[in-house]
UniProtKB/TrEMBL annotation, chain A:
<dbReference type="GO" id="GO:0009410">
    <property type="term" value="P:response to xenobiotic stimulus"/>
</dbReference>
<dbReference type="GO" id="GO:0010508">
    <property type="term" value="P:positive regulation of autophagy"/>
</dbReference>
<dbReference type="Pfam" id="PF06218">
    <property type="entry name" value="NPR2"/>
</dbReference>
<dbReference type="GO" id="GO:0006995">
    <property type="term" value="P:cellular response to nitrogen starvation"/>
</dbReference>
<dbReference type="GO" id="GO:0005096">
    <property type="term" value="F:GTPase activator activity"/>
</dbReference>
<protein>
    <recommendedName>
        <fullName>Nitrogen permease regulator 2</fullName>
    </recommendedName>
</protein>
<dbReference type="InterPro" id="IPR009348">
    <property type="entry name" value="NPR2-like"/>
</dbReference>
<dbReference type="GO" id="GO:1990130">
    <property type="term" value="C:GATOR1 complex"/>
</dbReference>
<dbReference type="GO" id="GO:0034198">
    <property type="term" value="P:cellular response to amino acid starvation"/>
</dbReference>
Automatic annotation (TrEMBL), chain B:
<dbReference type="InterPro" id="IPR005365">
    <property type="entry name" value="Npr3"/>
</dbReference>
<dbReference type="GO" id="GO:0034198">
    <property type="term" value="P:cellular response to amino acid starvation"/>
</dbReference>
<protein>
    <recommendedName>
        <fullName>Nitrogen permease regulator 3</fullName>
    </recommendedName>
</protein>
<feature type="compositionally biased region" description="Acidic residues">
    <location>
        <begin position="287"/>
        <end position="299"/>
    </location>
</feature>
<dbReference type="GO" id="GO:0005774">
    <property type="term" value="C:vacuolar membrane"/>
</dbReference>
<feature type="compositionally biased region" description="Polar residues">
    <location>
        <begin position="157"/>
        <end position="180"/>
    </location>
</feature>
<feature type="compositionally biased region" description="Acidic residues">
    <location>
        <begin position="64"/>
        <end position="73"/>
    </location>
</feature>
<dbReference type="GO" id="GO:0051321">
    <property type="term" value="P:meiotic cell cycle"/>
</dbReference>
<dbReference type="GO" id="GO:0038202">
    <property type="term" value="P:TORC1 signaling"/>
</dbReference>
Length: 589, 779
């Protein structure tokens, strides 16, 4: 399904009834001639009907057991959607009245947005017909050749005497009332013909000026505006607005990070859900859902539901937690960066970041120096620095603008080569160090989330594997609590830890403060101070609990993001715990 | 949408009706007592059903169904109010919370949400069971050679519940039948099916002649009756005796249907699906009309009072997937099966014989309970057997293998297990799915990958089953060419080698390979080599890892455990060749076997290398200077650049040579020539901010990546020539040979074998032209 909400136009609409003498027949149709050949052809009407109405009669006005359901069926290359109704009442000829408002669509189209509306409309008219005979009386009013017969039949039939003589067992009082109403109805209708405003004679009787103009208007309004509001009387109207049916949002994980795609702030109104309002400020493309809930002091499940709602309406997109220990690699879609004319320029605009400290006097003197010798600037600056505001500028520009700050945007080829240089076995940190010189003025987090959202790169997830756990699983000694693999005695958490042999992850220490912030998710899980205050026994107990928690997660083959979020610990802490469980390695997938 | 990659047949039952002069008759239905689920759609996990479904329409649906309707409501209201509903009230979920109390305690709310979650989980687990079942079957078949896969009877034995809830043993079915359904089902005959009177139902699904011999689709609320009613022609023939159409060449039809199936499988565009379907109505029938309609057919037809038969598939697809699910069911099963039945009816009045047999049986066995009776009928009537088997297999997303009038026929709704590009992480896929952007059997984008059509010959096959099992299943002779071909299939040998070894013609081998892949017997991969680079697939089914660990161990007891093995492959500084992991020469075969097992199970995927040609600024300037010398500059700039297929961006920077800038400016104004040659556009003007204090300049665009060197412009050709200037002749010769592949769409591993280029030569080329060639590695 594409992003644009287009609704399939209605090809035709028709109103059909079961005529007491003529059987199923089309009373009104738009456009003229689309379903049956009309009495008098005009220039706008169809030369030949779209399909043979006779073959579908039995589905347009089906037997009662199929009535009051949404019935759709195919004929030729059309799909007809209707909500057939059948009303039993002794006032009618043959004691029942059947009608159906049918919509004709091209067969292969998606008609789901209409279906609920058609059903609702059918139900409303059923109710109106039951109460006021709004439709059946109208068949009278339209008193052309087709309906004379019916009106007469109606009248004779609804004569109480006749009904009784027919031996139909009905409550006579009810019958009386019904016929009274019916009589009024006929008067009313007559008045209606004389164009007296409805309600003059019978204030509480809804009046329908013409079914024909009604369906005409529904047809035109829905096709032109995707909605219609057609008043029938003071209390009733045909109000339809089409809504796209969007697939339900996928299930999301606590470690997923929502990124807003619209300006949510401008959409907020008083009716918004309090949790939604609470979490909004924290949706910044950095915080995971778990963290958002925590920061907003909202319940996690409510927060998650809110995010899912936003996802449903495509107001947010989901990325992963950005950390410098993450790994990304190109996907087969990377070619689109070259072939899609928009993507590269959008990327340029999105990832570009102004140097954070550009306005500080610190860099002012450098500017003039730089323009003289740009080569040295490029090579000299850059190592690990975000802010290198200076790049070569042509003399012409320099003179035309009075000492501007020059900020260099990355070119598209640069961005492409940056994306392609990512690979499965390099963390962002290593990659950054390798490419730092060209990463000036690029917001790395945005660079990554752009790539991930457009599908040109993907997050390589790492799944920790504890060798000991594997062996214990393998030998069939599968203690569910995982106690078997937990070491009986372990060193206390020590500041230095031995990395697993295969493990070559760098730690984050010594990295810039900005990054550190993004790196650590759920850092606030364990407060170091409280741990220290506890007795050694208590510490040991907590550690045990954590370890068995970790083992449980390992058994579910969760990746680092999930484990960190679930345990509320940073990756370093989790790695630390893992060391406690013996040698371990990772799978990068 | 999210789950279109998962099979979901949504099949509730199959009806079989005939029309005679006496009227319409429901001859047989399977399962005997299907559940109609209140004509509601299959609840997806978090199914969003009809927005206005929950009004007052109450049916006999189970309580579970009702609840599903409720939590649907929560997802369907609009943004503001839906969250409101979640927090504000419990009216939709439980009566306990109703009344004026709009402020629930957090606890109660939480419970409520948990409740919803649980319900959803339950629904999900149902679906998962279905998937697991499919997977299990594959594994079983692999692990145990004696298991006969895809024997229709296995289906019922092994199956867990599918979403219709009607599968499994027959008594089970009965208990599941909704309670407003007939109470008298024990004795005698059923009087209602899907909540309709049998007479009424048979009438509803017996359309007038005008609607026959084309797709029939009737939906009652969300329950669809899908079929291809076959009506006898006026001349007494069942099939169109259009002799003039008969001589459609078979191959043509075949090619077409292959195309169709791809379109169906992979293009979500409903338009294309429906169009194909209409075409398909006449496709297979032509295929089969091979002049067998002799005069005796006419005689037989005369003593057949039946003028129409109709096999109706009843489904309740999720609302969102309605068109997709019905289309695939119609295209792959309904139309094909119906046309086969029509063929048999035409040939020897098969349908009428079977129908009368079933009717007689129903009468004579009327004293039995319905399930016994049905079992009897299925045993004795081959048509009833076909219907029952089809139902069982299709509702489990399996392959139907049935014998219709003495001939084996197979049907299936193909499953999607090959992906060209990585689906979203939240999108569920079948475990074991593989990723490959160059696979000839995957979801080919017909428009752009026409060159991969013939490339299947360079691929090898991995059998998903034991070779002997497959040979038995396809009914091949033990010592036939086909059988020996299957036995020879190895993941290390491509089809060219296989065909020369087995004596099968290459084109035949190709057809056969396609067949094996289509029928879920094999996967096509580039031949397994120790020099290939494999990575752990981003789609690897980690949720199954510990279970697969045991299977892996059984297969390869001497290798490290599965997770350790994967870790071995994935954790290094750079994705590396397999040969670097293999400890010694003796281990090679074992490791290759293991890798093939892992590819088959979706854990590994092959990392391919794709090339582009990059034109550096230096080259451009050099060419520019040359041109200036030649005095031809003008011509090049005015003429050729317009059609250039370069990847380039204009630069707002003024430092470049004037000539170069001219080029890029032209490019940016160009209209796109064609989708692939379209240069990247950018407006240099917008780069300059209106903030006067700052000057934004775009980094000088020094390099250009050629998108399609094969159709390069004159100027680009000069650039290309400049790149290889001064290289030894063998290098530049090879360079021009592979130039056409440097468009980022052809995997190096692939064209190497295709054009018979040695690895050494290629490496030499890549090293000497390192600065000009951009490599990208993905699957």
């Amino acid at each position: 399904m594409d992003d644009t909400y287009g609704f399939v136009p209605i090809v035709a609409m028709f109103y059909a009834v079961f005529h007491p003498t003529e059987g199923t027949k089309v009373v009104h149709q738009v456009p003229s001639g689309s379903v049956i050949t009309p009495e008098k052809q005009d220039s706008s009407s169809f030369q030949t009907p779209l399909f043979d109405f006779d073959s579908i009669k039995n589905y347009v006005i089906p037997k009662p057991s199929l009535c009051d359901t949404l019935v759709t069926f195919k004929i030729n290359s059309y799909r007809i959607v209707g909500f057939p109704s059948n009303i039993y009442s002794s006032q009618y000829a043959r004691n029942s009245f059947s009608f159906n408002f049918c919509f004709v669509f091209p067969y292969e189209s998606d008609t789901t947005p209409y279906e609920g509306q058609i059903k609702r409309m059918g139900k409303m008219f059923r109710a109106l017909e039951e109460q006021f005979q709004i439709l059946s009386r109208h068949s009278d009013k339209d008193a052309n050749v087709f309906f004379k017969a019916e009106s007469q039949a109606d009248k004779t039939d609804t004569n109480p005497l006749l009904v009784k003589s027919k031996g139909i067992s009905e409550d006579s009082r009810y019958l009386k009332m019904v016929t009274d109403e019916d009589d009024h109805g006929i008067h009313g209708t007559m008045d209606g013909v004389a164009a007296i405003p409805p309600g003059q004679l019978e204030a509480n009787q809804p009046e329908l000026s013409s079914i024909e103009s009604l369906i005409q208007q529904i047809f035109q309004d829905l096709n032109n505006y995707s909605e219609c509001q057609i008043p029938i009387d003071a209390a009733n109207s045909v109000d339809i607005k089409l809504f796209p049916i969007i697939p339900p949002p996928p299930d999301i994980n606590s470690s997923d990070v929502p990124v807003v795609t619209v300006k949510l702030d401008s959409l907020v109104d008083v009716n918004w859900d309090p949790t939604m309002l609470k979490i909004l400020p924290y949706i910044d493309g950095i915080n995971s859902i778990h963290k958002i809930a925590k920061l907003a002091e909202a319940d996690y499940f409510l927060a998650k539901q809110c995010i899912q709602h936003l996802l449903h309406y495509r107001s947010v997109a989901i990325v992963d937690i950005f950390q410098f220990s993450n790994t990304y690699a190109p996907t087969s879609e990377i070619i689109r960066f070259l072939t899609d004319p928009q993507m590269a320029s959008e990327c340029q605009a999105y990832v570009f970041s102004e140097p954070t400290f550009a306005n500080l006097p610190l860099y002012a003197p450098r500017q003039s120096a730089a323009s003289s010798d740009n080569a040295s600037v490029i090579s000299g600056e850059g190592k690990g620095q975000y802010h290198t505001p200076v790049e070569s500028v042509s003399p012409k520009q320099l003179t035309s603008l009075n000492r501007p700050q020059r900020i260099v945007r990355p070119s598209k080829t640069t961005l492409f080569s940056l994306y392609r240089s990512l690979h499965q076995s390099q963390t962002m940190k290593e990659w950054y160090l390798e490419h730092a010189s060209v990463l000036k003025n690029i917001d790395i987090r945005r660079f990554v989330s752009f790539g991930v959202l457009r599908g040109i790169i993907y997050r390589v997830r790492s799944y920790p594997i504890s060798t000991k756990l594997l062996n214990s699983l393998d030998s069939g000694f599968d203690d569910m609590k995982g106690r078997s693999i937990l070491p009986v005695e372990k060193k206390k958490r020590s500041p230095t830890f031995v990395r697993g042999a295969v493990m070559e992850r760098p730690s984050f220490s010594g990295f810039g403060a900005d990054e550190e912030d993004a790196v650590v998710d759920g850092e606030d899980g364990e407060d170091a101070d409280t741990v220290i205050d506890m007795s050694a026994v208590e510490q040991e107990r907590i550690k045990r609990a954590e370890e068995s928690h970790l083992v449980r997660l390992l058994k579910k083959a969760k990746d680092f993001d999930a484990i960190c979020t679930e345990m509320g610990k940073s990756k370093t802490e989790v790695e630390h715990l893992l060391n406690g469980l013996g040698p371990w390695s990772v799978i990068n997938s | 949408m999210t789950s279109l990659y998962l099979p979901n047949p949504c099949l509730l039952g199959i009806l079989f009706t005939i029309s005679t002069h006496d009227g319409h008759q429901l001859v047989f239905n399977y399962p005997p007592n299907p559940n109609e689920y209140g004509y509601k759609a299959t609840p997806l996990a978090q199914q969003l059903t009809d927005l206005h479904n929950g009004e007052d329409y109450s049916t006999s649906s189970s309580s579970g169904e009702d609840e599903s309707g409720d939590d649907d409501g929560q997802f369907s209201s609009d943004l503001g109010s839906s969250t409101d509903e979640n927090t504000g009230s419990g009216r939709s979920s439980s009566g306990a919370y109703n009344g004026g109390n709009n402020y629930l305690s957090g606890r109660a709310l939480l419970d409520m949400l948990d409740e919803q979650d649980r319900k959803r989980k339950k629904k999900e687990s149902k679906r998962r069971n279905l998937m697991k079942h499919i997977l299990n079957n594959e594994r079983e078949a692999h692990g145990d050679a004696s298991t006969v896969l895809s024997n229709g009877d296995d289906a019922s034995k092994a199956s867990s519940m599918n979403n219709s809830g009607t599968l499994g043993s027959l008594p089970n079915t009965k208990s599941l039948a909704s309670n407003n359904n007939d109470k008298d089902s024990d004795a005698g005959d059923i009087s209602k099916v899907f909540g309709f009177d049998i007479d009424f139902l048979s009438e509803v699904v017996s359309p007038p002649k005008g609607l026959c011999n084309t797709r029939f689709e009737l939906t009652v609320n969300d329950m669809a009756f899908l079929g291809l009613p076959i009506h006898v022609h006026d001349d007494g023939n069942w099939r169109t005796s259009t002799r003039k159409h008969v001589h459609h060449s078979k191959s043509k039809t075949k090619g077409r249907s292959r195309k169709d199936s791809r379109a169906i499988q992979h293009k979500r565009s409903k338009r294309s699906i429906a169009n194909e379907n209409d075409g398909a109505d006449s496709g297979p029938e032509n295929n089969e009309s091979d002049g067998e309609l002799g005069s005796d057919d006419a005689d037989e037809a005369n003593d057949c009072p039946m003028h129409m038969f109709h096999l109706v598939f009843v489904m309740n697809p999720p609302v969102m997937e309605y068109n997709y699910r019905t289309d695939e069911m119609y295209h792959y099963v309904v139309s094909r099966l119906s046309l086969v039945l029509r063929y048999e009816q035409q040939k020897n009045n098969y349908i009428w014989h079977e129908a009368s047999k079933i009717l007689k049986l129903r009468e004579s066995l009327s004293s039995m309970s319905i399930n016994e009776k049905w079992n009897q009928i299925i045993e004795q009537s081959s048509l009833a057997n076909v219907i029952a088997k089809t139902y069982r297999a299709i509702s489990n997303s399996e392959i139907v293998n049935v014998e219709i009038n003495g001939k084996m026929r197979s049907f299936q709704i193909p499953t999607k297990t090959e992906f060209k590009s990585l689906p979203l992480r939240t999108t569920p896929v079948l475990p074991g799915s593989t990723l490959s952007s160059i696979s000839p059997t995957g979801d080919a984008d017909l428009d752009q990958n026409s060159d991969t059509e013939g490339s299947l010959v360079y691929f090898a096959l991995i059998l998903l089953d034991d070779a002997e099992t497959i040979i038995r299943d396809i009914g091949a002779e033990k010592d036939s060419v086909i059988a020996s071909f299957i036995r020879m299939i190895k993941p290390t040998e491509n089809l060219i080698k296989l065909s020369s070894q087995s004596g099968l013609e290459l084109s035949q081998a190709q057809v056969f390979a396609n067949h094996l892949v289509y029928w879920r017997r094999a996967k096509a991969i580039l031949p397994l080599q120790a020099r290939n680079v494999y990575i752990v697939s981003p789609m690897a089914p980690f949720e199954n890892m510990f279970r697969d660990m045991e299977l892996f161990k059984q297969q390869f007891p001497s290798l490290p455990l599965l997770p350790s093995f994967l870790s071995l492959i994935s954790s290094s500084n750079k994705p590396r060749q397999l040969s670097l992991i293999i400890p010694s020469r003796d281990h090679k075969d074992l490791y290759l076997d293991a890798v093939s097992w892992l590819i088959k199970s979706g854990y590994l995927c092959h990392l391919h290398t794709f090339l582009w040609l990059k034109i550096s600024k230096k080259i451009k300037m050099e060419v520019d200077e040359e041109l200036e010398k030649e005095g031809a500059t003008k011509k090049f700039y005015d003429g050729s650049v317009d059609t250039s297929s370069q990847y380039n961006a204009s630069s707002g920077d003024a430092s470049g040579k004037s000539g170069i800038r001219k080029v890029t400016d032209n490019t940016s104004k160009d209209g796109p020539v064609n989708p692939y040659n379209r240069p990247l556009l950018t407006s240099s003007g917008s780069n300059i901010s209106d903030d006067l204090a700052k000057l934004y300049i775009e980094e000088e665009e020094e390099e250009t990546i050629l998108l399609d060197p094969e159709s390069a412009s004159a100027l680009e050709r000069r650039w290309i020539a400049k790149c290889v200037e001064g290289q030894p002749p063998d290098v530049s010769k090879l360079f021009y040979r592979i130039l056409k592949y440097m468009n980022g769409r052809n995997a190096l591993e692939m064209f190497m074998t295709k054009d018979n280029i040695s690895r050494q030569d290629l490496r030499k080329l890549l090293v000497s032209l390192e600065s000009h060639i951009v490599t990208v590695r993905h699957w």
